[in-house]
Structure formats: structure tokens, C-alpha cells
Design a protein that fits this description.
Elements lengths: L1 E2 L5 E6 L2 E7 L4 H4 L5 E5 L10 E6 L8 E5 L3 E5 L5 E6 L5 E6 L4 E5 L4 E5 L4 E5 L16 H5 L10 E7 L4 E6 L4 E5 L7 E6 L6 E6 L5 E3 L5 E3 L7 E5 L8 E3 L1
Antiparallel strand pairs: 1-2, 2-3, 3-4, 5-6, 6-7, 7-8, 9-10, 10-11, 11-12, 13-14, 14-15, 15-16, 17-20, 18-19, 20-21
Length: 249
């Protein structure tokens, strides 16, 4: 599910459907706090039998657009008329996650693939580097060359969540093996790893970037959250609203 930038509608996806739910702000019921919704199905045409797995509403000059991915590795863009304007094959076995900024559309896919597109045209911009291969003892990789030698014939964890901080040009990616990478895309032609966290043992359900303006400097110059929960990145563990906790990175 994804809400539009204006907050006037949201979009949900699933098995053989993409639905737009519009808030009726002009009705009498809206004045009482009960805001009714009307739903309209997207026109899927030959893609009507697809299973849609993730959706994001556009931002900025692309706020009228909506983007979806399907389980057969296809990326779709919808216009304000709810019709498919463009679609392309991501050339992956599966796709799992989407995130959009005012400049880039990021797609998290199987085998560690993350592709970046230009939102209005779906033109391919660049691929992010892949993470460490599966089944590798990272403590034994003492140099970058040792890791590179493993890459060609390796399998990589699926990217199951992706988010970004446009202010710092950082992209945060979560992989199925519970590893978390932060990539620096300041120079889109020279993307590098900013940090990685591979120690988490429990299931991670979601990640989210928090704007840096929520931080202030505390004692000894360290950055402290202004509110009780205002981390740079929030990682929601399994059972967050039960016994588990939110981890700030």
C-alpha cells in the first residue's frame, strides 16, 4: 500500500489487481471525521493476470504517477488515468521492493540485484553493486580482492526492502540473509558502500530513513534524536509491537 503525496488517495496491489482508493473530502460524512473512500481499479489489459507485489506513489513532478512491480519481474508505471503508461522487464527472476524519490525509482530484486530508473520514462540509470555472496565467511575475506574473486560464480541474497535519504544521497537496502547495506550514490557513476551491518540474527520486517533534521548534537558532540524514536534508519524486527524492539542505526 502507498499513499499519494497529496494524501488524497492511496493504492493497494495484490493478486490480479491494482486499486486506487480516493478520499471523499467534500461529503458531509468527511466533516464528522468519517472519511469515506471510493475505489477504482487500474486498467491492466493484458497484464490482468499478474500478481503485483509492491507499489509506490510518485513524488515531486512525478506525483501523479504510480509504480508497481509484479512477481514475474516486471515494472509498471500508471498515470493519473490509472492506465499503464509504460512497463518493462527487469530481467530478474523476481522483484520484491520499490522506493521512489524526486529523481530516482529504485527496484529491489532477486539475487541481490537493485536497479535504478528515471521515474518519468523508466530509463535505466544504473545498477547498485551486489552485496557479499551467500555462504561466505566474511571474517576470512581480509581484502576487497578476496571478495571480488568470489563474485562471478556466486549466489547473492534477494533484496527484500529498499529506502533512500535524498538529503544525504544514501540508499539503504535490506537482504534476505538479514544483512543491511548503505550505499552512497552521490556520484551515480561511482557508487560505493558507505556501511554494512551483517550481525542481525532475527527477522527484519522493514526499514525506513528518518530525515537528518530530526537530530541534534548532544554531549561530547554525538548526534542525539530530538524525540524518543528518531533514528537515521529504523529497522523493525519481528514482533516489534510485542516483545521485540526498534533498532536505530
Amino acid at each position: 500500500m502507498s499513499f499519494s503525496e497529496s494524501g488524497s488517495y492511496f493504492v493497494v496491489v495484490g493478486v490480479r489487481f491494482v486499486k486506487f482508493w480516493y478520499f471523499d473530502t467534500n461529503s458531509d460524512k468527511a466533516l464528522t471525521g468519517l472519511n469515506p473512500c471510493e475505489n477504482r481499479a487500474a486498467v491492466l489489459e493484458e497484464h490482468r493476470n499478474s500478481t503485483f507485489k509492491a507499489v509506490v506513489c510518485g513524488k515531486g513532478s512525478f506525483a501523479h504517477m504510480t509504480f508497481c512491480i509484479s512477481n514475474d519481474g516486471r515494472l509498471f508505471s500508471f498515470g493519473s488515468s490509472r492506465r499503464i503508461e509504460r512497463w518493462l522487464d527487469l530481467k530478474v527472476n523476481d522483484a520484491f521492493a520499490l522506493y521512489v524519490t524526486t529523481q530516482h525509482l529504485l527496484c529491489g530484486c532477486s539475487d541481490g540485484v537493485i536497479r535504478i530508473f528515471e521515474p518519468s520514462t523508466l530509463s535505466h540509470v544504473v545498477n547498485l553493486p551486489k552485496p557479499h555472496p551467500l555462504g561466505v565467511d566474511l571474517s576470512e575475506c581480509t581484502s576487497p580482492s578476496a571478495m571480488v574473486s568470489l563474485l562471478p560464480a556466486s549466489d547473492f541474497p534477494d533484496c527484500i526492502a529498499v529506502t533512500a535519504d535524498a538529503n544525504t544521497n544514501k540508499v539503504m537496502t535490506l537482504y534476505r540473509d538479514k544483512s543491511l547495506y548503505i550505499w552512497d550514490i552521490t556520484d551515480i557513476q561511482r557508487i560505493g558502500k558507505f556501511r554494512s551491518y551483517v550481525y542481525h540474527s532475527a527477522c527484519i520486517c522493514a526499514i525506513e530513513a528518518i530525515n537528518s533534521r530530526h537530530f541534534e548534537h548532544g554531549h561530547h558532540g554525538e548526534r542525539q534524536p530530538v524525540k524518543s524514536i528518531s533514528p537515521r534508519i529504523g529497522v523493525l524486527s519481528k514482533g516489534t509491537f510485542g516483545r521485540s524492539s526498534l533498532i536505530a542505526i
